[in-house]
Amino acid sequence: MATVLKANRRENLQGSTTRKLRKEGFLPGVLYGNKIDSQPVSVESVDFLKTVREVGKNGIFSLDVDGGKKHQVMLYDLQTDPIKNEFVHADFFEVDMTSEIEAEVSIHLIGDSPGANAGGIVAHMMHTVVVHCLPSDIPENIEVDISSLHIGDAIQIADIRERVSVDIKNEDEETIVTVQAPAAEVDPDEPVEAEAEPEVINEKSEDE
C-alpha cells in the first residue's frame, strides 16, 4: 500500500499567513505536474518528515489534497532556512509512472581508500548525479567504492556508468572522487632563514 501524505489547499498566499502556517506546525508547498495546474498546498511538518524518512528522498508517495484525488508525487525540491535550520517550502511533482523523468541522486562513498591510509586526502568532487529513468526505478543513492584508490587515483562518471542500472546524464569526464597527495607540512619549530640583504653594487662613498 502506497504511503499517503495528507495536504490542504492554500487559498491565502500572503506572507503573514504563510508564516502563521509554519508556526502552527505546517509546511507550505506547491503541487504541480505536466498534466495538472499548479496548486499551493500545506502539509503537517511532522507527517511530512515521517513520509520522507519512510520513502526516501526520491521515493514516490500519494499526496491526498483535501480528501479528494490522490496524486502520485515525489519530492522535487525542499527549501531550508539556513539560519533556523528548518524546512520552509516543499515542491511536490506529480509523476506519470509510465514516463521516464530526470532526477537528482546522491552519491555515497563506501570503502576504505589505501591512499587515504597512506596520508592522502579523499576529495569528494561530485555529491549528486542526474539520472533518467522511470519514477519507480530512481535509486535512493548511488554507492561508489573507493577501496582501490591510491594517491593520485580518481573515479569518473565513465567508471561507474556500466555498474548503475539507470541512465546517468552527466558527462563521462566528470570526476566524482580523487585521492590527493598530502600538502607539504611546515615544521613550526624549524627556524625560517632571513632573506639576504641585496648586495649594493658600485655604491659611492661619501668622500667621492
TrEMBL record:
GO terms for cellular component: cytosolic large ribosomal subunit. It comes from the Bacteria. GO terms for molecular function: 5S rRNA binding; structural constituent of ribosome. Gene3D superfamilies: Ribosomal protein L25, beta domain, Ribosomal Protein L25, Chain P. Residues 100-182 form the Large ribosomal subunit protein bL25 beta domain. The keyword Chaperone does not apply. Residues 5-92 form the Large ribosomal subunit protein bL25 L25 domain. Residues 186-200 have a biased composition (Acidic residues). Residues 182-208 are annotated as: Disordered. InterPro entries: Rbsml_bL25/Gln-tRNA_synth_N, Ribosomal_bL25/Gln-tRNA_synth, Ribosomal_bL25_b-dom, Ribosomal_bL25_C, Ribosomal_bL25_long, Ribosomal_L25_dom, Ribosomal_uL5_bac-type. Keywords: Ribonucleoprotein, Ribosomal protein, RNA-binding, rRNA-binding. SUPFAM superfamilies: Ribosomal protein L25-like (SSF50715). GO terms for biological process: translation. It holds the Pfam family Ribosomal_L25p. NCBIfam families: bL25_bact_ctc, PRK05618.2-4. Part of the 50S ribosomal subunit; part of the 5S rRNA/L5/L18/L25 subcomplex. Contacts the 5S rRNA. Binds to the 5S rRNA independently of L5 and L18. Belongs to the bacterial ribosomal protein bL25 family. CTC subfamily. This is Large ribosomal subunit protein bL25. It comes from Alkalihalobacillus alcalophilus ATCC 27647 = CGMCC 1.3604.
